[in-house]
Amino acid sequence: MVLQPSERHHRDRSHGRRGPWCSPSGSPAPLSSETGCGEGSWILVCRLLVPTQVSLLSMEEDIDTRKINNSFLRDHSYATEADIISTVEFNHTGELLATGDKGGRVVIFQREQESKNQVHRRGEYNVYSTFQSHEPEFDYLKSLEIEEKINKIRWLPQQNAAYFLLSTNDKTVKLWKVSERDKRPEGYNLKDEEGRLRDPATITTLRVPVLRPMDLMVEATPRRVFANAHTYHINSISVNSDYETYMSADDLRINLWNFEITNQSFNIVDIKPANMEELTEVITAAEFHPHHCNSFVYSSSKGTIRLCDMRASALCDRHSKFFEEPEDPSNRSFFSEIISSISDVKFSHSGRYIMTRDYLTVKVWDLNMENRPIETYQVHDYLRSKLCSLYENDCIFDKFECVWNGSDSVIMTGSYNNFFRMFDRNTKRDVTLEASRENSKPRAILKPRKVCVGGKRRKDEISVDSLDFSKKILHTAWHPSENIIAVAATNNLYIFQDKVN
Questions:
Q1: Model confidence over 153-194: pLDDT tens digits?
Q2: Which of 134, 292, 344, 450 would be 357's cystine partner, CB 3.0–4.6 Å?
Q3: How far apart are CA 183 and CA 181, in angstroms?
Q4: Burial level of 124, CB count in 10 A (0-12/13-18/19+)?
Q5: Is the pTM of this model over 0.90?
Q6: Origin, by domain of life (predicted)?
């Protein structure tokens, strides 16, 4: 069963060095004990909500972000469809955390500076800036509504005092500059203090403009708009390691852009057949290699991954490597094609491995071995018996994302009932944790959760029949160098850190 690009979109109604997980000897620290205590345990740092009202406040006003977050925590009635978080991304230093939502807004949180008296608050983030990135549009030529939903956000490495990020909806990619301003010029000759032009007859002396201190103001300005290059819906953007180019991928094509050129892009992958009746697969995700600017991978709805080299040809329709795991005929069913579709693909930080997420599993592939993954982790295998009902309520089309930790030793991905899963690649241990409003006391240790498939259920277990499929963790992010994670659940953003003794 293969879905056409438009149909598939309609059904989707919902993304070597010693690392922080290593002990002084270099061996990986355990994920968590059965009690949820000890080394490797996770505690809630803070729970934030997408602050819809912040954008209504004047930029010059002194906003106490802590009060804003607390007021939203007390009143949950602000949650609307537009408030649902659709992407989460740390910047390269981990000091900033950006979220995009279905209302087209981007909210940036900044990490609190650590002080000697508040060492325990090293993982707290508060609102830094919020702006409207995309607006709803209408394509009159195709009679098609274009949603404002932010599909992906990608940060550029910081080169100066300002920050730059890419955000995209279904059709348009925008480059935003986020900068601070704490001084304003005064003493213009041709303008008064309110910016109005003065009567030249009243100007009798010349003044030297000066900069006066002012309250800190964070400005977000669009620097580039990359539009009109995609027929289908953009599902991925990825910044190249040369930091001069990036790519955007939709269901059938991948385009390469230069940051300085907005009116032209180069098509590097095109899998659209001459006859759309012959369409058998679509592109689901794409990413550049973290170190080699000529290499990138893209995944498909058939569960395959293609590694392409732009040095071989300008049009990379012919891949250099093809990763696919042969299907066991005994396990084939009506849902096989749907659950094998890859929803996310990520290079490891080292560039040696590729991680993919399909509906039931997370797989790790070695770039030097194409015939099968070197590791396979079952995320929620207990849902195999529920595939029929999951198909009927469209949950089987949910697109879960996956992330690496800073040292590539632990991977994380989401599940239902606001559960998210972590897998330690070295010890082969795994843990299921929950991001819920009921357990959102600050500094509280997360207790591992277990799902009971059948038979007698223990006190601390939850039955598979009791899972809430409307609560799902689709989007997660991991701090690039520390054990701090961000988990998006509806319009809530949970930030956890490992317990420090």
A1: 999 999 999 999 999 999 999 999 999 888 888 888 888 777
A2: 344
A3: 6
A4: buried
A5: no
A6: Eukaryota
